[in-house]
Write a structure and sequence with these properties.
- The structure holds three protein chains of three kinds.
- By secondary structure, chain A is of the alpha+beta class.
- Chain A has eight helices and 21 strands.
- In chain A, helix 3 packs across helix 4 and helix 4 runs parallel beside helix 5.
- The longest helix of chain A is centred in the middle third of the chain and has 18 residues.
- Chain B has 13 helices and eleven strands.
- In chain B, helix 3 packs antiparallel against helix 11, helix 6 packs across helix 7 and helix 8 crosses helix 9.
- Helices cover 41% and strands 16% of the residues of chain B.
- Chain C is an all-alpha fold.
- Chain C folds into two domains: 183 residues, Orthogonal Bundle (MetI-like fold); 259 residues, MetI-like (MetI-like fold).
- Classes of the chains: A alpha+beta, B alpha/beta, C mainly alpha.
- At the B-C interface, helix 1, helix 2, strand 1, helix 3 and strand 2 of B face helix 3, helix 11, helix 15, helix 17 and helix 20 of C.
Chain lengths: 357, 365, 554
């Protein structure tokens, strides 16, 4: 049995043009960390709030450990769902100490049990010495860990984390997220983790769900999402820089940058786009080439060149940092990927990318 | 965290203040109740019930300003220590209308006014109950209302006072009609329309002279830039200090100011042949119908016209007591020497509304 | 089939949290409570005989309207000029003694304008005042001194005691102003003078507008000072109608016009408020640099010291002097302590408990309104919150008029009890509580409440265990404001107090109206001190008292 099951969940806010959550369905196994990733405003936070019970769904069902908690006729309020939520702003109670914050969700248990649990949590997040501090006397990373400890203390069936690292500096963020993932795995917690940062999603998630405009675009293992995006949006969101137009046949694709010999699912001649990162493209100086160098960006270990093909198509390509070529030089650009590439027709994948290869 | 503690203390303070309000009031009355009657051995002059047996509250609405009634209340309180006196002082009309408003749910026991028209008008609207105070036979008959609804207390005269450093006795106006003389432009002070004595003077003039002449006189005052104060104490002080040369007041304000050592003189106006005569009026009191504390109210009415009460008005406030045989305060000019304007109280009371209309039409402040 | 349909129908409303229903009901009831006097006044005015309208329209209304608007305009301008210049001098220049002056400039808020008027009148009254008399003693003949009476006197004295509203609000705006804003203007070629007019002042506009609104509404409602200084406005004319003739129809008509005027001002402010969304630059906040006044320093100091003297030091000094005089003279002291039906301590007690109770009730009533409007924003909740500000537009005398008539008919058991006075305070000062509660709630992240829900608390438990403890300081600030203004309230208390019930304000007024300034002084002094306590608490919150170094590190 899944810890969480969501079926056809929809939510549209009053006065909103689009649904914030549009027919979303997924399930979550015990002990699994699911990263919900997507651009801001895509509906991932609303999905979380629906699961925890802070919003009322318009349609669909939510089940926790098989128990129906939200449907057309049933709505279990958040205080009865047993779902922990770590807020973006941490939401630590400023009038309570670290200890009292963590103990807040343990009300009704025996004092000895509360003490033991809080101390255990403090130890787990490494804040034993700060139990009597107030939140304003903590650093950002410490607050983050208190928020996590508070959410985990009541042993919720499910922990939801809403962009929990967004208020931290980049350096701190890297350190804290390693700690947090360690803690979550040590607790064997079932987690939904929301972020708009694809790198963070790849790091935190056992699985990823990419959300756009209230819909799940793709759900799968991080590697699958990265290498075999199901839609053009997923490819773009996971870091593809250019989409090269081409004509596809079942055998391969004809493009301005040459023939790509990669089978596709198209049955007949079709217009497609190939998702390319800068390391998939190379070029050489050639008077007879198919484009020119527009600009060079110095990236330390390498240079990135922006190229414009004769049709106006823009591509980016890596070169090592020693090789400096002038803007305006005529070049011949070609695809140099050593692996199958993701190919899209009308935004949907028609070739499975690397996982297939 | 000391910040929070401060807030909590404040909160407790607020709670405490609000929470224990009734509790803190209660002991006060308890103390009053257990006090031994201080003046019990003194012979009570008139009361039908022994002084120490009347207790509870006595609610008085007074058109007389607090300063002019409080000494009388204090003297009454000394005689009846068991009674707690609650006073609401205000203008005659404000209190009169409160009495009308409350008719179904009476709050006040006794109403005291500074002129007769208001009590007369209220009497016809059935606000008072009849009561014949002991010794009422000592009052002139015209100062007892029909059906014993009200009794007169003291008489006062409308006079002109002047600052004797700025105005000589010859110069001082001898008639209220000289107040419209441009010679006094901007130098006269009087009380405004909220003042009962002023209202009554205008009502009396309407009866004596008619609407038009009164209106003309009022307009004359306005164009002469007469300054209208809320009350007469301000007027007498302003004249005493020389801020204004002339003041139109009740006679005792002159004596009160003189007693403070100010250089002031007085004219009892309009005594010449063919003039309207000195305008006088009387303060009065009545027991409100349905008065919650009837015994105390009756004892108070008795006290007001007792020799002791009347003497207080005369001595403390230089007024003319209505009770026969109570001497004037030394130095107060007796009314017997003056020609008094004759005003029909009942008629003036009936026309009181028209007087208000007149004041408003003229734009008297 | 029927059953299922019914079930779905019932289930649909629960899509909104059930807590919001209770809140909506509570907030709606509060709004209804606030609406009663307003609606009643308009009904009475509409029901007044045509004759009353005609009589008033012929002469009085236009003259009163002119008088009132002229005074409102003059005092608002005066308060703006004084308040902004004082705020600028203490916040933005190297004015000598600015740290102490900064607090002193705010303290006149604790002095009711009529008490200030009493002091200035006693000092400056032509010929009779202490100063003209002293001058006459020195020169042997009367010397012409400025008169505190009439329009100019009223405008001057009311400016002295209302400018702190503008001063406090623009001072706070000056303090929060970002240095880079002015620096950007300078770098774009503006002189300091142009920068002030084109950048600084517009950035301060919201604070200044709010201050001007408070001043304007205050002057509309003012009774004691104008009555004392013999300048007739709508409020004092209504009072005269009530005290002189007790003509309720005429009073209702005048009240309706006055309330209409106030609502118009309030509406204009709300419109202006709608356009004032300035983004605050959060990071790297740094106070703007102080301007060196150079040779103007001492002149500026004299100017500020003059304002502080006229609005704070002189009134306090005179009150203290009179109080000492009262304590030295046994007869006066006796009079002071024995006056009134229940003696001196009863005025103090009455003032404190009615104002405290009013503060408590106003804050409690403001809570559902604020919670509803902040946590469940919708057109309805916004309307209720705005509507509850209508008390600003209901001068004390108008509230008194409607309560006198309403209570005796609808709630006779309340009639002639001090609770009616408390009711008037609550109605009049509710907006302050609503605004404070709203701003306190706005500063509280909703995620704190949601966190409590996810940690097993019901909405009610969340309110009690998380929301209330955290917004308590803000609620207390609102309560302090209501307490402070209730303490100073005069006209409603005068008209509504039951027999034998006096407050400090009423007592001071009676004494002063009779010219007994020395007797009035101890009560006035206690009133000012009692008002200064909550004010000090508010100023501490506003960081008026914190010194500069602490300010710049925060």
């Amino acid at each position: 049995m899944n810890t969480l099951d969501i079926k056809h969940l929809s939510k549209r806010f009053a006065n909103a043009e689009f649904a914030a959550v549009n027919d979303v369905s997924f399930g979550l196994k015990n002990g699994e960390i699911l990263a919900l990733v997507g651009p801001s405003g895509c509906g991932k936070t609303t999905t979380l709030r629906l699961v925890v019970g802070l919003e009322y769904p318009d349609a669909g069902e939510i089940r926790l450990n098989g128990r129906l908690v939200a449907s057309d006729t049933i709505f279990v309020p958040p205080e009865q769902r047993g779902v922990g939520l770590v807020f973006q702003d941490h939401a630590l109670f400023p009038h309570l100490t670290v200890y009292e914050n963590i103990a807040f969700g343990l009300r009704g248990r025996k004092p000895a049990e509360i003490r033991a649990t809080v101390n255990e949590m403090l130890e787990l997040v490494g804040l034993t010495g700060l139990a009597n501090r107030y939140p304003h006397a903590l650093s950002g990373g410490e607050r983050q860990r208190v928020a996590l400890a508070r959410a985990l203390a009541p042993r919720p069936v499910l922990v939801l984390m809403d962009e929990p690292f967004s208020s931290l500096d980049a350096d701190l963020r890297r350190i804290v997220r390693e700690q947090v993932r360690g803690i979550l795995k040590a607790m064997r917690a079932t987690v939904i983790f929301v972020t708009h940062d694809q790198e963070e999603a790849l790091y935190m998630g056992d699985r990823l769900a990419v959300i756009n405009l209230g819909r799940v675009e793709q759900i799968g293992a991080p590697e699958e999402i990265f290498h075999a995006p199901a839609t053009r949006f997923v490819a773009e969101f996971m870091g593809a820089s250019d989409f090269l137009r081409g004509e596809a046949t079942p055998e391969g694709i004809r493009t301005e940058a040459g023939w790509l010999s990669q089978p596709t699912f198209v049955s007949q001649l079709a217009q497609v786009e190939i998702a390319l990162r800068a390391d998939d493209v190379d070029f050489e100086l050639s008077e007879m080439g198919n484009g020119v160098i527009v600009e060079r960006f110095f990236r330390g270990a390498f240079n990135v060149y922006r190229l414009r093909l004769d049709s106006g198509q823009v591509l980016h390509a890596f070169k090592e940092h020693t090789q400096i070529l002038p803007a305006g030089a005529r070049v011949r650009a070609f695809i140099s990927a050593g692996h199958p590439l993701a190919v899209f027709q009308n935004g949907r994948a028609v070739s499975r990318g690397v996982m297939n290869g | 965290m000391s910040h929070y503690r401060f807030l909590i203390v404040l909160l407790i303070l607020v709670w405490g203040l609000t929470g224990c309000a009734p509790a803190a009031v209660a002991p006060t009355s308890a103390v009053v109740a257990t006090q031994p009657p201080a003046d019990a051995e003194l012979p009570s002059a008139v009361s039908q019930t022994p002084a120490d047996e009347v207790q509870g509250k006595l609610v008085i609405y007074s058109g007389r300003s607090e300063a002019l009634i409080q000494p009388v209340l204090d003297a009454f309180k000394a005689k009846y220590p068991q009674i707690e006196i609650l006073l609401k002082a205000g203008s005659n009309s404000e209190l009169a209308n409160a009495l009308l408003e409350e008719a179904a749910n009476p709050v006040a026991d006794v109403f005291i006014t500074t002129e007769l028209f208001t009590v007369q008008s209220l009497a016809t609207q059935d606000v008072f109950q009849s009561y014949l105070p002991a010794d009422a036979d000592q009052l002139p008959a015209e100062f007892i209302g029909q059906d014993l609804t009200w009794i007169g207390l003291t008489r006062r005269a409308r006079v002109i006072m002047y600052n004797s450093e700025l105005v000589s006795a010859q110069e001082a106006p001898k008639s209220i009609f000289e107040l419209t003389d441009t010679k006094w432009k901007g130098q006269i002070a009087a009380a405004g329309t909220t003042n009962g004595s002023m209202q009554a003077q205008i009502a009396a003039m309407r009866q004596l002279l008619g609407e038009e002449a009164t209106e003309e006189w009022l307009k004359g005052l306005l164009s002469n830039e007469v300054t209208f104060f809320g009350g007469h104490t301000d007027v007498r002080k302003a004249v005493g200090s020389g801020e204004f040369k002339i003041g139109l007041v009740n006679h005792y304000y002159f004596y009160l100011q003189q007693a403070e050592g100010s250089p002031v003189g007085v004219v009892f106006p309009d005594q010449g042949e063919g003039e309207i005569g000195l305008i006088t009026n009387a303060t009065a009191a009545g027991i409100v119908k349905g008065a919650p504390n009837l015994a105390a109210a009756q004892a108070f009415m008795d006290f007001l016209i007792s020799p002791e009460g009347q003497k207080l008005f005369a001595e403390l406030n230089y007024e003319y007591p209505l009770r026969a045989g109570v001497p004037l305060r030394q130095g107060v000019q007796p009314l017997e020497g003056f020609r008094l304007a004759a005003v029909d109280v009942v008629k003036a009371a009936l026309d009181f509304e028209a007087t208000f209309d007149l004041m408003e039409r003229v734009g008297l402040p | 089939m029927q059953r299922i349909l019914t079930y779905r129908f019932v289930a649909t409303p629960s899509r909104k949290s059930p807590a919001s229903h209770w809140l909506a009901i509570a907030a709606g009831l509060t709004a209804l409570f606030v609406a009663i006097p307003l609606v009643y006044i308009f009904l009475r005015a509409a029901g007044a005989e045509a004759a009353a309208w005609q009589r008033l329209l012929q002469a009085r209304i236009w003259q009163l309207l002119g008088n009132t608007l002229l005074l409102v305009f003059a005092v608002t301008c005066g308060a703006l000029a004084t308040g902004i210049s004082m705020a600028w001098l203490t916040e933005r220049t190297d004015l000598p003694g600015r740290n102490i002056l900064r607090a002193m400039l705010a303290l006149p808020l604790a002095i009711p304008a009529y008490i200030g008027g009493i002091v200035h009148l006693a000092l400056l009254r032509p010929r009779g005042g202490l100063i003209p008399q002293a001058l006459e003693g020195i020169f042997g003949q009367p010397v012409l001194t400025p008169s505190p009476l009439g329009f100019w006197g009223s405008a001057f004295i009311l400016t002295l005691f209302t400018y702190p509203y503008v001063y406090l609000l623009s001072g706070a705006a000056f303090r929060s102003l970002h240095a880079s804003l002015e620096e950007a203007a300078r770098s774009l070629g503006r002189t300091p003078w142009q920068t002030f007019w084109q950048v600084t002042l517009p950035a301060l506009r919201p604070g200044i507008m709010a201050g001007a609104l408070l001043v304007a509404l205050d002057i509309l409602a003012e009774y004691g000072t104008v009555a004392l200084l013999r300048y007739e406005t709508f409020s004092s004319a209504i009072f005269v109608q009530l005290a002189g003739r007790y003509d309720r129809s005429a009073a209702s008509v005048l009240s309706a016009v006055l309330v209409g005027l106030a609502i118009f001002i309030l509406w204009a402010e709300l419109r202006a408020q709608g356009q004032r969304r300035f983004t605050q630059i959060e990071s790297n906040w740094r106070p703007a640099r102080r301007i060196a006044l150079g040779k103007w320093r001492w002149l500026a100091f004299l100017l500020v010291a003059g304002v502080v003297s006229a609005s704070l030091l002189v009134p306090l000094g005179v009150l203290v002097g009179w109080s000492i005089q009262a304590f030295v003279d046994a007869q006066v002291l006796e009079a002071v302590f024995r006056t009134g039906s229940r003696g001196f301590s009863s005025f103090v007690w009455n003032s404190l408990w009615t104002s405290s109770l009013a503060a408590f009730l106003a804050v409690v009533l403001s809570l559902p309104v604020a919670l509803f409007s902040v946590r469940y924003p919708s057109r309805a909740s916004r309307f209720i919150a705005r509507f509850c500000q209508v008390g600003y537009a209901l001068p004390g005398v108008v509230i008194a008029l409607s309560l006198v008539l309403l209570v005796n008919r609808a709630l006779p058991f309340l009639y002639a009890t001090p609770l009616v006075v408390v009711l008037a305070y609550v109605l009049r000062h509710m907006p302050q509580a609503v605004r404070s509660s709203e701003s306190a709630l706005n500063q509280l992240s909703p995620s704190l409440e949601e966190a409590a829900r996810t940690l097993g608390r019901t909405p009610l438990q969340t309110l009690l265990q998380v929301t209330l403890p955290l917004i308590l300081p803000g609620l207390l600030a609102g309560g302090a404001l209501v307490f402070l203004t209730s303490l100073k309230e005069l006209p409603a208390t005068l008209l509504l107090r039951p027999p034998g019930f006096d407050t400090l304000a009423v007592r001071v007024w009676f004494w002063a109206a009779e010219g007994f300034y020395v007797q009035a002084a101890p009560a006035a002094l206690i009133l000012v001190l009692a008002a200064a306590l909550p004010l000090a608490f508010l100023l501490r919150r506003e960081q008026i008292f914190t010194d500069e170094s602490a300010n710049e590190h925060s």
